[in-house]
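Any chance you'd type out a single protein's sequence alongside its tokenized fold?
>
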Amino acid sequence: MALHQRWLWGKFSEIAALKKQLVDSFYGTNRGLSASSETSAEVVELITQIEAVNPTPAPTEALSLLNGKWILAYTTFAGLLPSLSKAAALPLLKIEEISQTIDSENFTVQNSFLFVGPLASTSISTNSKFEVRSPKRDQIKFEESIIGTPQLTDSIEIPENVEFLGQKIDLTPLKSLITSVEGTASSVAKTISSHPPFKFSSHTQVESWLLTTYLDDVLRISRGDGGAVFVLIKEGSPLLSN
């Protein structure tokens, strides 16, 4: 028994070390957007090692683990990287969070982008249904998109300067102007934020699949159409603070 417990503890420690090493390798990559070829190769190697010690061989049968909100930490999805790149090029605008929320009871998936600027924050989401097709594979069927109502801030925060196209722009004059209209902005914020989000459905059937290759209570690795890799961390996990 003692020997078996030591073996389990050794395995647990090995996986924990690999997960920390993987998350540490994401530093400075902007969810994969800015990853160098060397970093990308390191990430792929670490992902392969972690997949080899997957503690959940049938993820689609462990719906309680899949359930909840997952934060995207890294991806190689080519369709997402251009969107990240364009958003990163816009001054004062930041993608605060990209997440996927799974409701295993109702078999729904919501993918969400949270955008934050000095004047407001808003989100763009897609709602989908999923069907279990194998112990590791889910079929995803798109249903609708949602553009969240902008949530304007009562107190508008403007940085001292911003860099755009290689030039530093002084925003000090703008800050003094914003201060004089903050009262009006507050009333406008309450009016706009009271409106419901805008929803629209697709006229065509859009489907994709997702293969979960690693799953535990804090880390999920999935592969999608075309072999794209998604590494997600469960909301509230200490790994997010690494």
User: Anything to note?
Assistant: The longest strand covers residues 120-132. The CA atoms of residues 120 and 211 lie 36 Å apart. The two ends are 34 Å apart (CA to CA). The first helix runs from residue 2 to 25.
